[in-house]
C-alpha cells in the first residue's frame, strides 16, 4: 500500500519541548521559499540577528541561528572554543551537563566534572573549588535551566567566577531563553546556545548562539582547525557576519528561519519582561493547582523554573498509563522523566505559547482525571479554584 | 522602528538550489507540531525511512534524514567512517570535492587528492592509480553530481573500484537524488548523503543519509568515539533505528520532516523513473533554447546533469547585472558561478518542481531579454520554438 500524506492531529504540548507553536509561526513556515543568497533573505537574516541580540540581551556581533537543533548549538560552542589537550570544568546537575562532558571528551579535551544533586542548582562553592584546583582550565560550562530537572542555576554568579579565574563561560540556555531572565552581556557570558522549540514557541531545528568578543578572539587564534567544518564559526561568519559580503557556506534552512523570525518578532511585540512575567504567572497558577491535587515538586520553590515543572509521580500511579491516557483522551502531551528520574517524575512544560491559562486549566483537570481513573483521591474542583485565583 | 513579520515574494527558483518548493510541501510545513516522541510522529519517521529507501534504491537499515543541511550530512559520513590517522582518497572536480578534503583533514585523517578538471566527470583511471598507490586507504570519496559544474560522474564504476581495492565509498548525491539514476545497493555505495532542497523540491535543512552494513560494522568497531556527538550514528540509531525503542537523542525538526515526508510521498506518486525522465525532458528543451540563443554549455552533453545547467556567460554580458535584472524584473533566480567559475558561468537549475515547462519558457525569454538589454544579439522567438518542440 503506498504511503500517503501525513496529517498530524492537534495536540496540546506541555512536555519539555517542543512547546505549542503559535499559529502565526506555523503560517510563517509555509511562506514561499526564496534563495538563501537573495537580497531579501539577507535582509531577513539581519533582522533575525538583531532580534536574537534582543532576546539574549547582548550586543555580541557573533549572534546568529545555527542551522540545526540545540544539540548542534551545544557542539558549536565546544568545538569552536576547545582544542585537543584543553581542560574544561563542566557542571553536572542533570542530563544536559553530562552531554556537555561528552562534547568536551570528543574534542580531545579533558573534562573536570563538578556534580550537584539532580533537582538542585549548580553548587557555586564546588565550582569555585574546582576553578582554584585547576588554574589551567580554559572553559567553565554549565546549564542555566536544566530541562531534565527543572532547576535554574545562578548563571550570573557562575559567569563572574569564570571571569575571576580567567575561564571562558559556555552556558546552555535551551530552556531559559524567553522564559526567565537572561542577560548575556550583563552577566559576561562568553558562549551561549539555545533552542527554538521551548520558550520561543517555534518548531525545533534551529539553535541560536552568541559569542563574546573574547570568545571570538580565542576562535580566531586557534592552533588547530575547528574539528567540525559545518559548525566552524570562522566559516559561518562569512555568511552571517557583518559587512554585507555573504559568502556561501551551507544552504540555510530558509523556511525554518521564517518561523524563527516570526517567533522573535512576537517576543519583541510582547517584550521580554512581559514574557518572563507570563511564564511566572502561569507557573504559580499551575503549582497551586498541582499542590491542591497533592502533587509535590522536585525542585525547591527558590530554584524552580516556571517553564519546566518537574513533579514526583504519586505512589501507586502508573507513569506510562497516565501519559498514554492524557495523549489519547485529551490529546495532551506531558514529558517523562529522563535518566535517574525516569518513571519517578513527570515534566510539565509551560513554555512560550504553552504558557497560557487554558493550558493550565486543561492540565489540572486532565491529569486529575487520569490519576483518579487509577484510584488516586483528589479534589479537582478545589485544584482548579486554586489555580484560577492566580490567573 | 520595530521589526515586523517577513513576507517573502514569490520567486521562480532556477539556481543550484533551493529549487521551487511544491505548494503541497509548503502546506505540509505548517501542519500542527506534535511531540518528537509521539507515537504518531514515530510512525511518520518509519514512513520517511521507507520512502528514503525507495528514493536511494536501497535496503540499508541505516537510512534516515540527518537533522541539518547537506553539509552536515557530508560531515556525518566522514566523521563516522574516519578515525585519526586513517587515509582517504578524495576526488576533486569542483567545489564539493574540496569540501570533502576539508572534512577528511578535520577528522585528523590524511586526504589523497585526485584532481580532474572542473566540468569533467571524475577521472576513473586516475582514481584507480591512486587506489593502487595507496593500498592502506580506507575510504574513496567523490561527488556524484557536482553542483558547482553540472557534471555527473560514473558512480557505479567508482564504487566498483572502491570495492575492488577494499575501500568504503562515500558518495555525495546532494544534487543527484531524484534527478538522475542512482542505485545505492546495485552500485554498492557504502555511505551516501543528499539534500532536500534540490530534486526533492523541499525546503533546505535536512540531509538524507544511508549506510551499508559494511559501513555500519566499521562504525560499530571504531577505536575512537565519533568526534561529533550530534552526528554520531551509534547514538542516532537509538532514536531512528529499528526495533521500536526510540531513545531520546536530540529533538527532531518536526515540521521540516513533515515537508520531507510530503516531498517523498510525491516522489513515490510520480515514480523515480518518471522523475528522472522529466528532468531529462526539461533539460533537453532548455538546452535547445539556450543553444538557439547562442549560449554554450560548460559540460559535454555526455556528462551533463539535466538538473544543473552550467553555461558560459557570453562575452560582453555582465554577470551580476543579468542576475539582478532577472530577480527584479522577473522574480527569477539563477545561480552564479562558484570558485574558479565565479563571473564566468551561470548555473541554471531544473530541479524537482522547478523542472517544468513553464520554467523553461520563462528562463529562455527572461534571460534573452536581460542579455538583449546589454546589447547581446539573439532571436528569442526561435529559441522558444526550439524548446517548445521538445516539451
Automatic annotation (TrEMBL), chains A, B:
GO biological process terms on file: glycine biosynthetic process, by transamination of glyoxylate
Xref: Pfam families: Aminotran_5
Molecular function terms, GO-annotated: alanine-glyoxylate transaminase activity; L-serine-pyruvate transaminase activity
InterPro entries: Aminotrans_V_dom, Aminotrans_V_PyrdxlP_BS, PyrdxlP-dep_Trfase, PyrdxlP-dep_Trfase_major, PyrdxlP-dep_Trfase_small, SP_NH2Trfase/AEP_transaminase
Domain of life where this protein originates: Bacteria
Cofactor: pyridoxal 5'-phosphate
N6-(pyridoxal phosphate)lysine carried by residues: 198
Domain Aminotransferase class V: 42-336
Keywords: Aminotransferase, Pyridoxal phosphate, Transferase
Ligand binding (substrate): 347
CDD domains linked to this entry: AGAT_like
Family named by the database record: Belongs to the class-V pyridoxal-phosphate-dependent aminotransferase family.
UniProt-recorded name of the protein: Alanine--glyoxylate aminotransferase family protein
Organism per entry: Spongiibacter pelagi
Amino acid at each position: 500500500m503506498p504511503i500517503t500524506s501525513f496529517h498530524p492531529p492537534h495536540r496540546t504540548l506541555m512536555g519539555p519541548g517542543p512547546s505549542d507553536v503559535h499559529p502565526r509561526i506555523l503560517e510563517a513556515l509555509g511562506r514561499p521559499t526564496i534563495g538563501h543568497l537573495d537580497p531579501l533573505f539577507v535582509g531577513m537574516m539581519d533582522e533575525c540577528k538583531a532580534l536574537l541580540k534582543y532576546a539574549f540581551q547582548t550586543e555580541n556581533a557573533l549572534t546568529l541561528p545555527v542551522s540545526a537543533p540545540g544539540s548542534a548549538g551545544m557542539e558549536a560552542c565546544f568545538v569552536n572554543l576547545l582544542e585537543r589537550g584543553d581542560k574544561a570544568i563542566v557542571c553536572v546537575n542533570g542530563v544536559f551537563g553530562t552531554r556537555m562532558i561528552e562534547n568536551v571528551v570528543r574534542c580531545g579535551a579533558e573534562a573536570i566534572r563538578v556534580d550537584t544533586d539532580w533537582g538542585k542548582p549548580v553548587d557555586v562553592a564546588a565550582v569555585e573549588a574546582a576553578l582554584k584546583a585547576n588554574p589551567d582550565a580554559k572553559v567553565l560550562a554549565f546549564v542555566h535551566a536544566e530541562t531534565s530537572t527543572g532547576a535554574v542555576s545562578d548563571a550570573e554568579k557562575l559567569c563572574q567566577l569564570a571571569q575571576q579565574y580567567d575561564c571562558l563561560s559556555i552556558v546552555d540556555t535551551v530552556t531559559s531563553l524567553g522564559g526567565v531572565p537572561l542577560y548575556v552581556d550583563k552577566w559576561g557570558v562568553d558562549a551561549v546556545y539555545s533552542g527554538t522549540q521551548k520558550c520561543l514557541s517555534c518548531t525545533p531545528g534551529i539553535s541560536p548562539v552568541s559569542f563574546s568578543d573574547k570568545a571570538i578572539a580565542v576562535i580566531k587564534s586557534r592552533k588547530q582547525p575547528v574539528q567540525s567544518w559545518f559548525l566552524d564559526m570562522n566559516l559561518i561568519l562569512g555568511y552571517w557576519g557583518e559587512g554585507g559580503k555573504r559568502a556561501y557556506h551551507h544552504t540555510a534552512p530558509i523556511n525554518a528561519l521564517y518561523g524563527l523570525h516570526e517567533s522573535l518578532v512576537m517576543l519583541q511585540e510582547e517584550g521580554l519582561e512581559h514574557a518572563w512575567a507570563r511564564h511566572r504567572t502561569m507557573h504559580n497558577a499551575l503549582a497551586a493547582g498541582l499542590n491542591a491535587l497533592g502533587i509535590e515538586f522536585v525542585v525547591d520553590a527558590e530554584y524552580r523554573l516556571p517553564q519546566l515543572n518537574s513533579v514526583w509521580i504519586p505512589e501507586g500511579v502508573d507513569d506510562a498509563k497516565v501519559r498514554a491516557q492524557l495523549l489519547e483522551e485529551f490529546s495532551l502531551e506531558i514529558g517523562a522523566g529522563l535518566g535517574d528520574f525516569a518513571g519517578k517524575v513527570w515534566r510539565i512544560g509551560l513554555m512560550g505559547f504553552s504558557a497560557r491559562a487554558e493550558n493550565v486549566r486543561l492540565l489540572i483537570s486532565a491529569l486529575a482525571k487520569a490519576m483518579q481513573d487509577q484510584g488516586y483521591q483528589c479534589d479537582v474542583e478545589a485544584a482548579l479554584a486554586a489555580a484560577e485565583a492566580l490567573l
